[in-house]
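Crash report, auto-generated. Payload:
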Amino acid sequence: MASVTLENVTKAYGNEIAVEDMNLEIRDGEFLTLVGPSGCGKSTTMETIAGLTQPTEGSVYIGGRDVTDLPPKDRGVAMVFQNIALFPHMDVYDNISFGLRLRKYDQDEIEERVEQAAEVVQLEGMMDRMPAEMSGGQRQRVAIARAIVREPDVFLMDEPLANLDAELRIHMRTQLQRLHRELDTTIIYVTHDQAQAMTMSDRIAVIDNGHLQQVDPPLTCYNEPDKLFVASFIGSPAMNFFEGEAVESGFDSEFIDISFDPAANDITPGQNLTLGVRPEDVYLARDREEANEPTRTIGATVDVLEPMGDEVFAYLLLDEDVEANVEGRGEGQLLLNLDPQTDIHEGEDIEVVFDQQNIHLFDTDRGQAITHKIA
Amino acid sequence: MSDSEHPDLAAQEQMDEEPELDRGVVEAWAARMISNPDRAYKSAFYVATIFFLVTTLFPFYWLLMVALTPSNDLNQVGVLTPGGFNPGVFVDVFLEYGVPFQRFLFNSFLIAVVSTVLVLFVASLAGYVFGRLQFRGKNVMLLAVLVVSFFPPAAFFVPLNRLFNTNFDVLRPLMADGSLYNTPYAIIIPVSALYLPLSIFILMTFYSQIPDGLEDAARVEGTTRVGALFRVIAPLSAPGVATAGVLTFITVYNEYFFSSLMTSGAAEDWGPMLEGILAFRGQYEVLFNVMGAASIIAVLPVAILVIVAQDKIVSGLTQGGLKE
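Recovered output after restart:
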């Protein structure tokens, strides 16, 4: 049980800066997820906390103690690795008890603790198996048992579910949440999968390019993203974006115009704006009463429909001249999700409205959010 | 390549069957080889294998033959048959003739064991650094290690011999006269250093292949970097460690150059096993049969070691390069 604090942490590998001036406070008992695209510096951040790499600048505190210069073994942390990293030449018992044996606990206590840890992750009766004889999920549970058996102050989990198949991953997700509740320990979790970040965390820290973008509870990151990057990264499928400009009458872009009073939203005409709207905040014009405050209608053509069972993703083209972008959603394309019962066909011309209460405006040049609801 | 796969087979079979060709035995044999290369490969394999077995095993057989022949009948030794049967010579090596052969064996064995342990320890540290860490000047240092391993041992002999014959006061509590001459250290130190580069290269290759995650896990669990090396990385590189160890042991055990020159050659002065074998040369007669028996006894430890470790050695020698 301990808080973790990063103070002005910078890590550079030669000229490559992996993490720059990071300040992060992780509270005691919190489940915090570091999330971001691969190569954004989230793993480096975790390795810095674990002590596997030394920060180039800045300090790390665990439970108020400056651990910047301490080796990993003296930091009171335990870690679960992406590639599981069980010692292949040791059986399950030896793997789990490795840390305790190194710390010279007496035999009885080791046995008792290993037994308890095995019980938590349901590994009873597998003590003399070798890692090679176990399934991926079992190995992952051994790795977790190895981490919890030492009763560390802080758990570090570096993409622990990445190598598991989809079904097992979802199962382990709930297991981990239960584990967090039982152990009541600080957990720092690294993932690039925003679904894991959203579902398990108390707070998520979104990192891009070595910089901390936002640290907030998952729903805050989803509903009120501070940065353009956070808005585009959190949420699946991703938010629709339109790049345009602030004008006297509101927002103007190549494909859509939204009218509002710029002054009421702290926007000066001429400013470069990016408008973002989540797929669930786009409605068909005929269902406009479902929106809190519909905008005026926008014409579009249905390009592709993706029935998912419980909903349908409709990809729209906002202009006849727009070519469907093969590398993801581009300018002039719009995604919305609809009820599967909706009567809609590919190639059909339709009209849509946005919910003005859920339109996000960003300053394009600074990437900073201006408002999450147009006044 | 099997017979049926050979594209020209049908055509060439027809050629074989042409009876009117007037060929000699050798010519016909050559023609068959050309039409069916698999036969050529197979016979080449057998020729090479038999050649190798004969050149390595026949001397050993001859040694056994000589050893079994009583010393008076040594002129009776034939090409393939011994001149008599006297298995008691293997016991006499130790009991008769006044040569403490067991002490010579022990000297070589101990020196080899200590050198092997030393080499494995130092080469592990070096292999870890070269194999797993990135630092400036790494390639230059590796090259230096490689170059040193190419130096002929004789190049080091004179300075080392002078050094080991010098009396150092600091060594006086340990060594009677304060010099290393006539002590096992005078052999262990230069020999370990000379055979270190090979082990460094073997272990470097193996250690570099152990995933970083395992080392990180060990360090988080409570070891230092060195602890992780000896508790996780080295055990997982067992074939490499076994290969380096066995190669070092064999080379040091068979070593004669330093072992004979850094000691007086007497058993109590840490003379090596080879000095022991040569000790059966008297002023007036050379006991070839006893020397033969001593040689065979001296080979046994190495033979046993190789048989015990052969699985690991084979996988160690082949794995290293392939498992990138």
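Post-recovery validation: The domain at 4-226 of chain A is CATH 3.40.50.300 (Rossmann fold).
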